[in-house]
Amino acid sequence: MIGSPASVASPGSHPPSVPQWLLQQDVALCPCGCIGKRKKGSYLAKTIQGGAKLLQQVMFGEDVAAARGVLQRIDPRVKLMSLIGLLVVAGLSHSMITLAVMYAATLGLAAASALPIAFFIKRVWLFVPIFTGIVVLPATLSVVTPGDIVVTLWHWHGTPEGITQQGLLAAGRLVARVAVSISLVVLLTLTTPWIRLLAALRSLGVPRIFILIIGMAYRYLFLLLTSVTDMYQARQARTPGTPRHDRRARAFLGASVGTLLGKANQLSEEVHQAMTARGYRGDAKSLEQPRFHPADAYYLGSVVIFAAVMMIGDHLLGR
Amino acid sequence: MAAEADADAAATGQISTPRWAEPDGEPILEASGLHYAYLDRYPALTDVSFTIQRGQRVALLGANGCGKSTLLKILDGLIFASQGSYSAFGQPVTEDTMEDVQMSEGFRSRIGFVFQNSDAQVFSPTVREEIAFGPLQLGISREDTASRVEDITRMLGITDLLDRAPYQLSGGQKKKVAIATVLVMGPEVLLFDEPTAALDPRTQYWLMDLIEQLGNAGKTIVHATHDLDALYRIADRCLIFSEDHRIVAEGTPEQILADRQLLLQVNLIHEHSTLPTPPQPPLEPLHRGKR
Questions:
Q1: Contact A281/B137, CB-based, under 8 Å?
Q2: Residue A287 and residue B142: Cβ atoms within 8 Å?
Q3: Where are the beta strands (DSSP E) in A87-213?
Q4: Does residue B13 register a pLDDT over 50?
Q5: Least CB-CB distance to B259: which of A2, A7, A288?
Q6: Count of alpha carbons within 13 Å of A280, Cβ hemisphere only?
Q7: pTM recorded for the entire structure
Q8: Which residues of A are less than 8 Å from B266 in CB distance?
Q9: Is A223 on the interface with B (CB under 8 A)?
Q10: Cβ–Cβ gap B248/A3 under 8 Å
Q11: Chain A residue closest to B266 (CA)?
Q12: Which of A2, A13, A275 to mutate to test the interface with B (most CBs of B within 10 A)?
């Protein structure tokens, strides 16, 4: 039966009154034509474009992870254990020759896993300056690493000070270690689908909450990048002429960050609810059954032998 | 067992007798005096009470912001009312009871929720992993899950999407995948939030056909909507929300759509709107067999 509508709100169906200026058919601005001054895109535009590029890279990364290369055939758990072992070896190596051999090996594995070498090298060397730049530069100076001066920068009480040979060697060793380590990590992440990597981490005893947080962060990244792009494009569509790099631009950036945080919060809640609704309790489970194949044993054996050879070689080559 | 039989029937296209047609159907979802407010300040539900019986197809009708989506989330045990009680399948659904693993797994496997925002629901690297997510979480073996994924994608006609990334899909495709992720769990109760919103006409009709078929197969369906055109096809009963977040009326689609004043008051139609008419039986061809 139909009940009686109690205390319902008014429909508010009055037509909106349109202001007169909106009804006039004026030409809004100057006529079209490429006669004005041109400016390069702002830092904001470049950041947004960078975000869009990241999306493309990840899409490309998923394709690479699905390719039929050497590392793609190896069980993610084996790859993860090998990675940890090789990271320790790289961290303990002192000889530049050992590190160079290890780096060459990562390039060889990248090629065998159908990764474009140029892309792989670029991806690794993009991060090396970020991780090492600030730390390494002071280490090259004689005030931090005393030794034979190669480049004199100033004098202190008549003594030349500057970049030392020992400092350069220490810096080079650090850069090489970081490059090898990042290459190993990039090899793993590019040849393993994300969900299988999470499952591997979980099976090796990484706490459930940690898996939950990184899994969610990865998922939100894409939706938030899309939101950022949409917000920027919506602003661009309402900005005649060249965008300025002034206070208003900074204010827009601040407001966008705030809006994005709000959206992120709302989205995180909704995604979590969607996962909970389908029985998620913190464990990342994959459809693909992880199985230990003979290839995994060969790979693991090769990695152990390689690591042993590197350690012995490094010891023999001395420091 | 009944749920499995229903899932099989839906998957194979065999339609059993609708249980909602049976008198005195078994109460399956019961809510009494529900109140909910966001941040304890913005009310979303005020004193909401109803009972939904097994096999019913219920439409929650109301204007934007009247509390339909909030109610669906409460029905799915995702948020909990600040006052009042809600029980499903005879068991109280509270924050405390949902922490019980057995209760939680049983509840999640029996109620499926298709969100309005498909982006929130489709988050795995591939469509195949996405559809397999729910059954795997509920402890169904990988072999059975893979088999279910094949069956459900064949039924929904999305087999060609299986190895694609969800963010590469169109809005309609995402909605189909979102529905597959829920149907694959074989739930007894299906909750749809604005199912036809932002879909093109062909996908809208496809979805209405599906809801109709699932209802005929005995599934209990609750959907939030303000689309009156689809009511005759996808609902047996309507609960009408006012803009002050209360249920102000309930009845069959025929009864509700006949009350123009009510629909105007709750902001479901405009004074110039034309209301949909009940579906007519197909016309008998004249002079059959004669020239």
A1: yes
A2: yes
A3: 149-156, 159-164
A4: no
A5: A2
A6: 26
A7: 0.68
A8: 5, 8
A9: yes
A10: yes
A11: A8
A12: A2
Are A66 and A142 in contact by the 8 Å Cβ rule? The answer is no
Q: Is A193 close to B125, i.e. CB distance below 8 A?
A: yes
Q: Kindly list the residues from chain A whose CB atom is less than 8 angstroms away from the CB atom of residue B252.
A: none
The answer to whether A6 faces chain B, any CB pair under 8 Å, is yes
- Nearest CA among B188, B151, B157 for reference residue B172: B157
Q: Which token pair is B259? A: 């009350």
Q: How far is B106 from chain A (nearest CA, A)?
A: 9
Side chain identity at A128, as an amino acid letter? V
DSSP-derived 3-state class of residue A27: coil
Provide the b/e sequence for A179-190 (b: ≥16 CB within 10 Å): bbbbbbebbbbb
**What is the full DSSP assignment across B138-151?**
TT--HHHHHHHHHH
The complex's ipTM works out to 0.76
Edge-first strand order for the sheet with B27-38 is: B42-53, B27-38, B83-88, B91-92
Domain locations in chain B?
2-124+187-265
CB neighbour list of residue B45: distance below 8 Å, 6 or more residues apart: B34, B35, B36, B67, B70, B71, B74, B81, B245
Give Cα A230 to chain centroid, integer Å.
21
Q: What angle do CA B96, B97, B99 make, to 5 degrees?
A: 70
- Contact check, Cβ <8 Å, A277/B112: yes
Average pLDDT score over residue span B51-74: 94
CA proximity to B237, closest of B247, B246, A15: B247
Q: Chain B closest CA to A68's CA: distance in Å?
A: 15
Q: Which residue of A has its CA nearest to B247?
A: A5
d(Cα A215, Cα A204) in Å, to the nearest integer?
16
Check if A14 contacts B (Cβ < 8 Å): no
Segment B207-263, tens digit of pLDDT = 888 888 898 888 999 999 888 888 888 899 999 999 999 999 999 999 999 999 999
**Is A16 within 8 Å of chain B by CB?**
no
Contact B125 A283 (CB under 8 A): no
For B2-124+187-265, which CATH class? alpha beta
B106-164: per-residue pLDDT in tens? 999 999 999 988 888 887 767 888 899 899 888 888 899 999 999 999 988 899 999 88
CA–CA separation, A289 vs A196, rounded Å?
Answer: 10
Disruptive mutation site among B109, B133, B152, B254 for chain A (greatest number of A CBs within 10 Å): B133
> What pLDDT score was predicted for residue B291?
42
End-to-end CA distance of chain B: 54
- Is the Cβ pair A3, B250 closer than 8 Å? yes
Orientation of helix B127-137 relative to helix B142-156, angle to 10°: 130
Which residues is A149 bridged to in the sheet? A164
Residue B9 makes CB contacts below 8 A (sequence gap 6+) with B15, B16, B217, B218
DSSP annotation of B53 reads E
